[in-house]
């Protein structure tokens, strides 16, 4: 009895796949198309089925050294070669090099008489010879409807479709078969999608006069795959599919810090800046210096020797450079050195996917350290909120994976000011959110800046008033009045009041100092008088004591004299008595 063993399941071999080389397609198919099996590419007219098949062959030859066969039923080899020349694909050159075999099979319904023995044996022989002649590993059949259109016998049709797919599997070639979309089914016959190992649906839709192409992997036998609809573009380099990058959020992070370009704003962050590779959103109403903050960041990056891409949706490069020069930022040196590249266009020039692919390609060419997009709110004009959010999600993930610091500016309309939410709904996706706003006072409007969030670091919770000067953005010191922080004229009034109060306190202290000095003088004079009086009394007492001592000495001397005189008289009297 078999038991579930996760370790054995992991060790099982995975389905072998063939890389297509098509930008983004290998990512959502998780490695490419099934190796040695047929893949059905279906869609309506103009969605790029033939181009996908041609690019699959060309990329296989040029990038993986796998020769290929292109068998077309509607266009000749010359027509196909001419159609893809604008994309840089040289089919005739590859054919001359023996790497590609172009074969056009002409099928005219008027020349065919259906019988019960109708089959594709002739096609198998012809295709087999083309494969063997160059050792082809890849095959494209464009389109399968040309083989079976006009035949009412459904039994023969189904049998031959199954036999064709089985023959291609037995041949071991990785095949793309293109098919037109049916009414309510993926294909006209409604059978090809069931016998194919992989089915890719291409869709070309027009919404609000804007063309949008979508790709979806309908099924993929033996493999997991992306199940969403993915936008794709047909560009000068071929097809570009734009999947959501880094779905597992496993990208590397950096501890290196990047300055905002405004020293006082750096001080509002606990680490004096934000992390390299993080995404920063600057939101605010019109006229709150969002573009100036973005340009200050770009200027700082270039000053440190880094490279920056600046996407402007509202100003031309010349206008942006002129305006920033008026606030003390000269961007011309960075443009001349190639450190700064400004891409300016109206959002309505292209759809969201085209903008995203353009950003991807410019980043791959310019290899910037930072990207500024001003403003992302203008993208609402070329898509709804959900589409813009999806596009920005893919962009933010792409920039994070490449460790590129991104600064986005966004205009907040009046109805969203209280909620402090952006119309695009990306405020929760970014790492740092800076809000600039109008601070309305009595008869004036001032600007204030605050940090709403900064992941991974402490930050100030104050709303700081700032002004735009000839030397850039300057944050003013916080002034707190009786009712909280004051700005503008109230700030000046408060400062004058504080200065007057400080002056009054200073004057009061000086008055008290003078009073103390006077009291000190009076006290010192009193002490001097007392000392003089004490010295007078002391002299008087000393004089009295001296006089008393002299009196005592004279008295004592007199007593001694008197005593001597009395004794002499008695000695002479005694003999006389005798």
UniProtKB/TrEMBL annotation:
UniProt protein name: non-specific serine/threonine protein kinase
Q: Where is the KaiC domain?
A: 16-255, 256-489
Q: Which SUPFAM superfamilies does this chain map to?
A: P-loop containing nucleoside triphosphate hydrolases
Q: Which InterPro entries match?
A: Circadian_clock_KaiC-rel, KaiC, KaiC-like_dom, KaiC_dom, KaiC_N, P-loop_NTPase
The main enzyme category here is transferase
Q: Where is this region: Disordered?
A: 555-578
Coiled coil where? Answer: 520-547
Q: What is its EC number?
A: 2.7.11.1
């Amino acid at each position: 009895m078999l038991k579930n063993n996760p370790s054995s399941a992991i060790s099982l071999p995975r389905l072998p796949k063939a890389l297509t080389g098509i930008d983004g397609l290998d990512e959502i198919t998780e490695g490419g198309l099934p190796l040695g099996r047929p893949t059905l590419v279906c869609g309506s007219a103009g969605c790029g089925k033939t181009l996908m098949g041609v690019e699959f062959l060309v990329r296989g030859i040029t990038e993986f050294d796998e020769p290929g066969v292109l068998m077309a039923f509607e266009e000749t080899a010359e027509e196909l070669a001419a159609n893809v020349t604008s994309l840089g694909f040289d089919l005739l050159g590859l054919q001359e090099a023996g790497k590609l075999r172009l074969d056009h099979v002409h099928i005219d319904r008027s020349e065919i008489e259906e019988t019960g023995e109708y089959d594709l044996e002739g096609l198998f022989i012809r295709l087999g010879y083309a494969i063997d002649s160059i050792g082809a590993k890849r095959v494209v059949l464009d389109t399968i409807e040309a083989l079976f259109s006009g035949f009412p016998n459904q039994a023969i049709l189904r049998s031959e479709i199954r036999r064709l797919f089985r023959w291609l599997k037995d041949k071991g070639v990785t095949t793309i078969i293109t098919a037109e979309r049916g009414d309510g089914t993926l294909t006209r016959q409604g059978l090809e999608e069931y016998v194919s190992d992989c089915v890719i649906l291409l869709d070309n839709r027009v919404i609000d006069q804007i063309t949008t192409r979508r790709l979806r992997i309908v099924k993929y036998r033996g493999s997991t795959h992306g199940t969403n609809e993915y936008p794709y573009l047909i560009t000068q380099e071929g097809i570009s599919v734009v999947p959501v990058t880094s779905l597992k959020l496993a990208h590397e992070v950096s501890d290196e810090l990047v300055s905002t370009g405004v020293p006082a704003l750096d001080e509002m962050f606990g680490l004096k800046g934000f992390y390299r590779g993080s995404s920063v959103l600057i939101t605010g109403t019109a006229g709150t210096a969002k573009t100036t903050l973005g340009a200050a960041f770009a200027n700082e990056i270039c000053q440190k020797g880094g490279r920056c891409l600046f996407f402007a949706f509202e100003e031309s490069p010349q206008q942006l450079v002129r305006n920033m020069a008026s606030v003390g930022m000269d961007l011309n040196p960075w443009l001349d050195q190639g450190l700064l590249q400004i891409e300016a266009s109206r959002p309505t020039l292209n759809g969201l996917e085209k903008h995203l692919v353009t950003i991807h390609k410019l980043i791959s060419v310019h290899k910037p350290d930072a990207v500024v997009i001003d403003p992302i709110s203008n993208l609402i004009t070329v898509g709804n909120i959900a589409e813009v959010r999806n596009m920005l999600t893919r962009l933010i993930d792409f920039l994070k994976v490449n460790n590129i610091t991104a600064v986005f500016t966004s205009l907040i309309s009046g109805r969203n000011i209280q909620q402090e939410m952006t119309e695009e709904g990306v405020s929760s996706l970014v790492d740092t959110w800076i809000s600039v706003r109008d601070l309305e006072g009595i008869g004036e409007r001032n600007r204030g800046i605050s940090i709403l969030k900064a992941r991974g670091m402490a930050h100030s919770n104050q709303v700081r008033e700032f002004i735009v000067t000839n030397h850039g953005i300057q944050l003013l010191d916080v002034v707190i009045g009786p009712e909280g922080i004051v700005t503008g004229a109230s700030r000046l009034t408060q400062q004058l009041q504080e200065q007057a109060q400080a002056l009054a306190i200073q004057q009061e202290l000086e008055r008290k100092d003078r009073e103390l000095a006077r009291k000190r003088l009076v006290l010192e004079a009193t002490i001097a008088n007392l000392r003089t009086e004490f010295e007078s009394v002391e002299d008087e007492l000393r004089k009295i004591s001296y006089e008393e001592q002299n009196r005592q000495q004279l008295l004592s001397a007199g007593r001694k004299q008197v005593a001597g005189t009395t004794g002499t008289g008695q000695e002479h009297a005694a003999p006389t008595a005798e």
